[in-house]
């Protein structure tokens, strides 16, 4: 399949799911809900699909590059993967961007990407940003 076509399809699917999620959230009865977990479960089907599509998109997009920022921790992708596997990073901690030739790409990487095997093989470095 053509990459541009697939990226367009992904964007449309994400937009549809986001609209559905917005509609659902407007209808959610916060006053009669027992917990935040109820709300998270209510959102889960759409969020799961959006996250999967976002991972696929990050695997397909062509990167754009900018100068490395003064903040953030630069590390090899191999070290990042090992740290994630050892429990050192979770999505709540922050996010990274892939780096090539000392330039930051606009492609994010999250610890959960490692769990799903969504790792770009055209990069060997990342810059990590803590929350």
Derived structural class: alpha+beta
Helix fraction by DSSP (H/I, runs of at least 4):
40-55%
Count of individual domains: 2
Give the spatial strand order of the biggest sheet: 1-4-3-5-2
Strand content range:
15-25%
Shape: globular
* Number of helices, where a helix is a run of at least 4 consecutive DSSP H or I residues: 4
Question: What's the order of the H and E elements?
Answer: HHEEHEEHE
Average pLDDT level: 94
What are the segments in which pLDDT stays under 50 over at least 5 consecutive residues?
Answer: none
Separation of the first and last Cα atoms: 37 Å
Give the strand tally: 5
**Global Rg:** 17 Å
Task: Give the biggest sheet.
Answer: 5 strands, antiparallel
Characterize the structure shown.
With 131 residues, this protein is an alpha+beta fold. The protein folds into two domains: 3-60; 65-130, no CATH class. Helices cover 49% and strands 21% of the residues. It has four helices and five strands. A hairpin with a 2-residue loop joins strand 3 (94-100) and strand 4. The mean pLDDT is 94.
């Amino acid at each position: 399949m053509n990459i541009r076509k697939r990226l367009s399809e992904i964007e449309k699917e994400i937009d549809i799911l986001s609209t559905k999620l917005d509609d659902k959230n407007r209808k959610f009865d916060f006053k009669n809900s027992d917990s935040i977990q109820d709300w998270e479960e209510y959102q889960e089907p759409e969020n799961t699909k959006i996250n999967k599509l976002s991972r696929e998109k990050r695997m397909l997009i062509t990167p754009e590059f900018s100068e490395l920022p003064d903040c953030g921790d630069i590390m090899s992708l191999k070290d990042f993967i090992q740290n994630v596997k050892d429990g050192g990073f979770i999505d709540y901690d922050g996010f990274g961007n892939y780096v090539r030739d000392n330039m930051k790409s606009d492609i994010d990487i999250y610890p959960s990407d490692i769990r799903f095997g969504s790792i770009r093989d055209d990069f060997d470095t990342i810059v990590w940003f803590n929350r």
